[in-house]
Amino acid sequence: MGLALQSVRKHYPDFEIDVSFNVESGKLATLLGPSGCGKTTTLHIVAGFIPLDSGRILLDGERIDDMPPYKRQAGLVFQDYALFPNMSVSGNIMFGLRMHGWPKEKSSRRVSELLELVRLTGYGGRMVTNLSGGEKQRVALARALAPDPKILLLDEPLSALDANLRKNLRAEIRRIQQELSVTTVYVTHDQEEAFAISDRIAVMNGGRLEQYGTPQDIYTDPQTLFVAQFVGLTNTIQGRITGKKGSYFEIDSTLGRFRVRSNRSLDRKRDVDLIFRPERVTLAPKGKNWNVFQGEVVRCEYLGDSTLLELKAEGKVLSVKLTGASLCGVGETMRIGFSADDCTVLEAAD
User: How far is CA 292 from CA 143, 304, 313, in A?
Assistant: First the structure.
């Protein structure tokens, strides 16, 4: 059944958490958002460190929001590892097992299994103070998993590591999570990290969920302007709906006329935000008049497999990502466009 947060609310004098979402059993959901959006607070509510004001939290169908933290069968991994410096690797992993009353022989077998799982076989006797950051985080993960928890909670576990180590360790976390099929909630502000490991992503802003869905849905079909602009590079053009033919809307803007497909219910003569990703833009062929605009190249950045351009058109700067090396340079004029199916239309804020 997994984890369910039902109308969970927590009030502060200048802030409020108000979230509802489900994490399927054995899946990994990531809370993603800017600093101060409520990600860690939400995780701590699930863990039981912060009492909620209203709502319910269910784990595998059982209500846990009225339980103390130690009864919630949750394994926690923190940003700063929170290991015991006076203990060995095995001692840290075994600590939770002793607290749960596991017999010594069974605990020793479990420690050996976990050291193999996190690829630290042979490290049991080492003091944690002699480990690297990545090794410490593996020990912290093994310790969290030791009592065989029903849910795994990870709070920015990789933020203290360098970029290359983060990529390697996030792959390891995902491998272990899938191998054990443990229901997991993961907190990060790193978009690439979230997209790399998640079954579902909850984009948070101001204590609330802006959107909850698969990584593909979050990126290709943002439901709010915040999600569109927070996740990856995006372009936004303001316009007004002037007509509709089937599922296609006709939109006028200062950059030209656009025809786009949308399944949303939108009113004619409504102001809208037209959203499209830089990699969906192509050079426009001659004779094409819809979904085309012209701009001056003001920045050109060669990335190896692609070129990222910034175009200034009617006072607006737009990003364009073309495959390979672009032949255009700064100061030149480009005519570009995009498909009617490669954009999102949202009602503009009042």
Answer: 56, 26, 11
